[in-house]
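Thread: quick sanity check before group meeting

JM: Hey all, I'm pulling together slides for Thursday and realized we never actually wrote out the predicted structure for the chain we discussed last week. Dropping the sequence here so it's in one place. If anyone has concerns about the input, flag it before I start.
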Amino acid sequence: MPTAAAAPSARALAAADPDRAHRSRRERAARLERPLLLTGLVLVTAHLLDLALSGPDTTVLGVVVIAAAPVLWAAAQPRVTRPTRAALGVVFGLLTAGFGVVSHGLHTVLAGPAWTDVTGLGMIAGGLALVASGLAAALAPRRRREPAASAPHRAAHVVGWVAGLAVAAIVVFPVVMTALMTTHAPRWPIHESSLDVPHEEVRIATADGTKLSAWYVPSRNGAAVLLTHGSGGSRQRVADRAEMLARHGYGVLALDNPGNGESEGHNNGLGDNAQPGIDAALAYLTKRPGVDPERIAGFGVSLGAEVVLEAAARDGRLRAVVADGAARPSDARRYGDEPAAEEGLGWLAQQAVRAVSGMRPAPSLTGLMPRIAPRPVLLVAAGGVRDEALTNRAYRDAAGRSTTLWERPGASHTAGLKRDPGRYERRTVGFLDRALGA
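JM (edit): ok, ran it. Output follows.
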């Protein structure tokens, strides 16, 4: 009786037809693309909504945009070309995973997970899922050939693809990157040895219970300085200025802004949530033994300069201010000489930060400067950064005679202490000595 022939195995078929095996692998990759995309979008969106909803001034429009964007992406995905799907997944996946790692990943590894890190760690996984979906799209088999399109149709398709790519590269990518960068500060480790003067590591609680980290150098002359760092930095970035002030007997409180360094809370690289921390820091300084509450000054660098100027305008406990490199973005757009297109892009980026952070933008400093007078202010501006120089001139003109502008020709942003340490020390410390009677 004849025996039925055994069906060939999948391995045998693959060996007999390599092209078929290759197509099979591509088809398996294609089946993974959409589940990976949806998983990534859910995790990334959950984190962005967490940030937006936990902010003190959440906007309905911001929440709607954050929620609608991934829905539109998921709905459009089946109709988008394979190269576009691959590019979108890889680029935005790397972007979200990268910022998640440097902010929430580093903080979790170095200090242990905080409540603010939970969805941030999820964003890392979501970003990696988006990257995987992009790679799956790249490996997926091409769609079946359709009847040849006419030359005008093909030309229109190419023009549309190029235009879309230009919009994504010039508008969407920079705006999204700015929003993520502003709300996700790198949480690099802080080394106590980087401040080479006797000091204490202290924790200061804000009114809502957020604990901020700081260094305190005891005062030897009865005066003290609140020292604040720049965007995405920490107190370690201003250790050189802390040492400079300590050499002259000043007490120094070098503060980590919320969500920066070792401080709790959400980061905002525009300083929109910095004022409660300044309030707590000033309360701490006024109660320190050996500090005269009438002899406290603020010293800010870059973003920190903007923060202490805003604080001085509403809080008379700051008797003088040194502001090195202040130029609030809204003011720089107004007084600088950026092209209109760049100004518009900057405005869009600010709205994206507003949506993701759930925080109201910090006010223009121009209208606040007159409120500081007659208390003295020293503005330090980099002459080599035109927008910074122009903006600081506007601050000086608005403030009046009690404000002095030191514009350093050809200098780069906040580089005065490194470029000419002797002159920088004489100018800034001399100002504080006169202002505080040290």
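AS: nice. Residues 370 and 399 are 4 Å apart (CA to CA). The chain has two domains: 16-141, 192-338+358-436.
JM: adding both to the slides.
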